[in-house]
Amino acid sequence: MTGRVYLSAPDVGVREEELCVAALRSGWVAPLGPMVDAFEEALADRCARRYAVALSSGTSALHLALLELGVGPHDVVVVPTMTFAATANAVVYTGATPVFVDCDPHFGNLDPDLLDEALRSLRREGRRVAAIIAVDLLGHCADYRQIENICQNAGVPVLSDAAEALGASRAGRPAGSFGTAAILSFNGNKVITTSGGGALLTDDERFAERVRYLSTQARQPVAHYEHTEIGYNYRLSNILAALGLAQLERLEEMIARRRRLREGYSEIFADIEGVKIFQRECDAEDNCWLTAILVDSVAAEWKPEELSAMLTAADVESRSLWKPMHQQPVFAGARAFLRGDADRLFAAGLTLPSGSALCPAQVDRVHMLIRSFLSARPNRGASNHVS
Ligand SMILES: Cc1ncc(COP(=O)(O)O)c(C=O)c1O
Description:
Largest sheet: 8 strands, mixed
Bound molecules: pyridoxal-5'-phosphate
Helix content: 25-40%
Radius of gyration: 21 Å
Shape: globular
Structural class: alpha/beta
Strand content: 5-15%
Number of helices: 13
């Protein structure tokens, strides 16, 4: 396939087909079944957690995790401004209010110092901070050592949004192992996919049981339909879990392919004035979900939008980093603790095709397009000015 090149398309093959067919033939087509159990066990094992609950999306996992952390109306939840809207939306589903905190300038994750400042300010104002959500942006784990320390002192639980980070680690600890609970996404554009899906991870048995119960309409364990709480229809099906199980077997291979793509982009941009690879300084533990460049348009004398427009014209997808939540019309007027770093990353960043399913011809095409864009630009100095 050398047609349209996507940012991060699903990468499925023979093994996925085998396990999905096996699930269909087993008769376990109705929601749950042995593939769900096996997928949960494999996920918990990969993320060094005691429990995993397979759910219909990362967003539903965030929602149920927040409910189980006791988040509700009148509470606030601290959320990094540099994230996908799902992180903040899930807070709103509970009736609580998101408060946005800026990111560190290098890796784009929640800035621990600013988090500390935000928690102190909110406490002084008498607001109850019911949880903080840390996001592992583009598969680079947040600084949990500092974040967990700050939150422990403040008595606030940490929910880790590792939607983009399966397979990454920090100081040897896998993504998904941090916080009171963590969530994963298996959306079609993630490192592994179940077409749509997610998971909740925790070491707390009761937490996992409650999330399982809430995700299956909060049915009481009696013969008839008995409900004492509002429940949700958020479970992952057995067929989709089969797809996830096959994908998980291939996780390391798929991450290695994404890493090679990052290395290819690093070579192309190595000598380009004003351009650097985002998160490259220390990406040995990242899953390289998406590779992005940061463009200092004064030093480079071109803007990321110009490269993006050229790629779009050639049917190659590229996209800016997440537009910060405090800039989103839907969150206009929301409380935010900012230093301008997320705004700067949004203005400078461009994510490039990073999927493990890209074939060599597609990779060559993207490289050729970028090289020809750069060679048409006058400024091709040897230094690299974005810090
Ligand atoms: C940081 C982040 N959080 C949450 C989600 C939501 O996951 P899902 O699409 O599976 O609901 C995503 C991605 O989609 C994400 O990137």
